[in-house]
Amino acid sequence: MDELTRPYEPFIDRFSPWMARTATGDITPEEAFRVRVQLMDTWRMFPWSDADLPLELLPARRQLTKARNLFADLRTGLADRALEHVQTHAARHVPDLTPSACQRLPDGDRDGTSTRGAQGGRRAVLLAPCPPVREPFPLGPIVDGVRRLRPTPSGLGLSLLPGALRSLFPEWAGELPLALEALEDPKGTRHRLLRAMAEPIERLGVATLVIEDAHWADSATLEWLLTLCASGDQRMSIVLTYRPHDVPAGSLLWRLTSR
């Protein structure tokens, strides 16, 4: 059982000193940005190695709780100084960028596993992390993000088009429009599915779509993002995080980031 909590010990040893410096303000904007990225990049890998057992079954629950609290406190404590670094570079290299484009996104849950946007008006933030799985589910990050924002489509006022989403949202089958007539052309079916995916996001009032670890994104998700950008009428910002050296050759992500 000790093997289950041992991975958190290096995390605590590595980032605890930064918590003390953050508390005293002894940290530069550049350091805050670098450490915050490293903090989140390290933490996001734990869900894929964690056994996800109840805390009371873990022999060293104190270490896990300490690591979670350290992550949440340090992420919040570094945010403002890290944002200063982003704003400084944005002003230098992209002077025409509006100030509203460099604002803090809402903090997620205390354990950092999700971020929920406020509904009502175009203010919601849809967070779509891409897990490192061998065979990712098509459009999985987007589907999971929508589910977190809205457990049910009731009240969204959807058109008939999202009837094409029934296979992606089986738990919504009772509230989605009826399934659409099958098309003979597979390309037409795929294009209709990609168009349909945009409607619930539009109705949810999503202002910012954040795709994390896009180097692990499935091809359908990347194709959907390209279709969305090519339409020219999307009213939300799209934020991508990815490691360039982990992007496969020929990935649609290169086309997406070159736009």
- How many angstroms does the end-to-end distance come to? 48 Å
Largest sheet composition: 3 strands, parallel
- Spatial order of the strands forming the largest sheet: 1-2-3
Total domain count: 2
Percent helix, as a range, is 40-55%
The helix-strand sequence is HHHHHEHHEHEH
As a percent range, the share of strand residues is: 5-15%
Mean pLDDT: 80
Structural class: mainly alpha
Taking pLDDT < 50 over at least 5 consecutive residues as the criterion, the unreliable ranges are 108-120
Shape: elongated
- Using the CA coordinates, give the radius of gyration: 20 Å
List how many beta strands DSSP finds. 3
- How many helices? The count is 9
Outline the structure in words:
The protein has 259 residues and is mainly alpha-helical. It folds into two domains: 2-101; 124-257, no CATH class. The chain is 46% helix and 7% strand. The chain has helices spanning 2-5, 8-24, 29-43, 46-49, 61-93, 140-149, 186-203, 219-231, 252-257; strands at 124-129, 206-212, 237-240. Strands 1-2-3 form a three-stranded parallel β-sheet. Strand 2, helix 8 and strand 3 form a beta-alpha-beta unit. Helix 3 (29-43) packs across helix 5 and helix 7 packs across helix 8. The longest helix is centred in the N-terminal third of the chain and has 33 residues, at 61-93. It starts with a helix and ends with a helix. The model is unreliable at 108-120 (pLDDT under 50).
